[in-house]
Amino acid sequence: MDWGMKNRLNRLMPNGRCFFMPIDHGYFQGPTTGLEKPWETVKPLVPYFDALFCTRGTLRAAIPADLEKPIILRVSGGTSMVGHDLADEIVTTSIEEILRLNVAAVGVSVFIGSDYEKETLNNLTELVNQCEDFGVPVMAVTAVGKEMEKREARYLGLCCRIAAELGARVVKTYWCEKDFDKVVKGCPVPVVMAGGPKCETDLEVLEFVADGMQKGAVGINLGRNVWQNPNPVPMAQALNAIVHKNATAKEAFAIFSDAKHSAKPRKK
């Protein structure tokens, strides 16, 4: 691994752990509650996450160029919530654009088991072929579209291993209650947990993150469970404690509760 690749990965995952903050939701679902003004949402959370995951449009239009946190650029898309199939994605961003934006990594979705499995895996391999030449890591996002029942260990393990075999440097996947450790052990590159739909309770978020970290994940990629929370900064603080300080869910919930009492809830 050359110096550029090592440097980017170290910036993304200080001490081998990471808290990625995704705000890329608009690329397929349009206006998203909490992201009407992206920078207003992100700014108070900056001290607690390690990298920002966003599209080039949001990056250019809403994120200050003096932000020191690394950027993971969403580079797949071309479909929407009202379209025929979310899996029918293309690569939306050229390698020249990736380099011009000076990002630390790129993210691309793969839809294993869908009608567009081969096409999305081809998107991944083409990006890896191009980005490796310039030392830019590719994060594969193991998406399941609207088929939430696919979030079980055997399926997720299959997705992660295939993505790693095709050259992804990092894989983002969903946590599952049973055998998540097998998903991680079967993947030879770092596994980052996705947040998925908004959880019902604050403790539920902290519990699944703590469990996933204990079972081998290197970090999280959580957005809606943070910035749609009425108390986003306390939640970010609590999650940071789990990821970077090995806090238990109970300890993190205490951090969240203490911070919540001294913070102003975000206005709805």
Q: Name the beta content range.
A: 5-15%
CATH architecture annotation name: Alpha-Beta Barrel
Number of H/I helices: 12
Instruction: Tell me how many strands there are.
Output: 10
Note poorly predicted spans: none
Tell me the series of helices and strands, N- to C-terminal.
HEHHEHEEEHEHEHEHEHEHHH
Strand order of the largest sheet: 1-2-3-6-7-8-9-10
What is the fourth-level CATH superfamily?
A: Aldolase class I
Largest sheet: 8 strands, parallel, barrel
Helix proportion range: 40-55%
Query: Into how many domains do the coordinates divide?
Result: 1
The CATH topology label is TIM Barrel
Shape: globular
Average pLDDT works out at 94
Radius of gyration from CA coordinates: 17 Å
Distance between the termini: 46 Å
Summing up helix and strand content along with how strands pair, one would put the structural category as alpha/beta
